[in-house]
């Protein structure tokens, strides 16, 4: 069964996350379908793409499919991980991607939304950075996505507490472009998409790429990179990482011991 659906109207494509039963968790299957849809829109020379969930959902996406996280001793967010692939796909995609969000957005899905070019939300939206709840060592370029989207002190608070930030606060912090009543969500989102589609696509796509390269221009020394990878490894090799996974599967609160 398809986990997403797609539609198009003129130069504007839409991908709708369509697996409410699993709260649109980002499984490799769902991400595969999403990336295929993006590739088809690109081949058809569309000029703006909207990623959304079904109207009225309480959860836009529950984040990484925790059932697919490795059982320890392997980087859970390595280069080939599907969420990493999706974030790269969106940020390198030559067409602007608009996230239209109602409902809560968790963990890896929060990064996916923040990696989009424009974000339009309803007051029901919320955003949580959750690795500390699971004892997952988030990856370095993922932390950069958060840092490019929110003030450093906000990223710290969100990452350390793992508590959701409300729609209103996300707007006040400049993390999203627009907050609008739910009944205006589509009008505002597709209005922006049509404005983009009416402009020169080559100029738009090169500006998107310029911004991506400029935002990513943070030199990290080989030693610094290896240090961070070594520190991350301590986390995914830990008992706490296994406890985080176990607790989620057993639907209970984790008990972390710092080892
Ligand atoms: C697999 C799920 C999930 C799910 N995976 O519905 O950024 S990191 O490092 O944290 C990264 C690794 C990451 O993104 O991790 C995921 C972070 N996500 C979360 O912490 C949110 C986990 N989910 C929830 O807390 C709840 O599901 C919410 C609050 C989103 C919705 O609660 P609700 O009561 O509406 P259920 O919990 O009953 O979930 C419905 C079904 O979806 C599965 C869940 O296991 C359940 O499956 P069963 O019906 O088979 O029991 N599900 C939800 N989230 N991330 N599976």
UniProtKB/TrEMBL annotation:
<dbReference type="InterPro" id="IPR018376">
    <property type="entry name" value="Enoyl-CoA_hyd/isom_CS"/>
</dbReference>
<keyword id="KW-0456">Lyase</keyword>
<dbReference type="InterPro" id="IPR029045">
    <property type="entry name" value="ClpP/crotonase-like_dom_sf"/>
</dbReference>
<protein>
    <submittedName>
        <fullName>Methylmalonyl-CoA decarboxylase</fullName>
    </submittedName>
</protein>
<comment type="similarity">
    <text>Belongs to the enoyl-CoA hydratase/isomerase family.</text>
</comment>
<dbReference type="InterPro" id="IPR014748">
    <property type="entry name" value="Enoyl-CoA_hydra_C"/>
</dbReference>
<dbReference type="InterPro" id="IPR001753">
    <property type="entry name" value="Enoyl-CoA_hydra/iso"/>
</dbReference>
<dbReference type="Pfam" id="PF00378">
    <property type="entry name" value="ECH_1"/>
</dbReference>
């Amino acid at each position: 069964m398809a986990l997403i659906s797609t539609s198009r109207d003129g130069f504007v494509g839409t991908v709708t996350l369509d697996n409410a039963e699993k709260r649109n968790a980002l499984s490799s299957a769902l991400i595969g379908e999403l990336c295929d849809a993006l590739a088809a829109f690109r081949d058809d020379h569309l000029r703006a793409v909207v990623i959304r969930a079904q109207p009225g959902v309480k959860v836009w996406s529950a984040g990484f499919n925790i059932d697919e996280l490795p059982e320890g001793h392997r980087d859970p967010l390595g280069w080939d991980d599907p969420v990493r692939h999706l974030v790269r796909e969106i940020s390198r995609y030559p067409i602007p991607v608009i996230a239209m969000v109602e409902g809560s957005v968790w963990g890896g899905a929060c990064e996916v939304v923040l990696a989009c070019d424009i974000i339009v939300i309803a007051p029901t939206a919320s955003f949580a950075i959750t690795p500390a709840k699971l004892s997952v060592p988030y990856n370095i370029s993922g932390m950069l996505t958060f840092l490019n989207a929110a003030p450093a002190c906000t990223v710290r608070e969100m990452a350390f507490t793992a508590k959701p930030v409300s729609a209103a606060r996300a707007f006040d912090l400049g993390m999203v472009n627009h907050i609008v009543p739910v009944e205006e969500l589509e009008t505002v989102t597709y209005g922006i998409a049509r404005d983009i589609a009416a402009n020169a696509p080559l100029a738009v796509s090169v500006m998107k790429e310029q911004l991506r390269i400029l935002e990513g221009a943070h030199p990290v020394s080989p030693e610094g990179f290896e240090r961070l990878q070594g520190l991350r490894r301590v986390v995914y090799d830990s008992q706490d990482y296994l406890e985080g996974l176990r607790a989620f599967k057993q639907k209970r609160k984790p008990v972390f011991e710092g080892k």
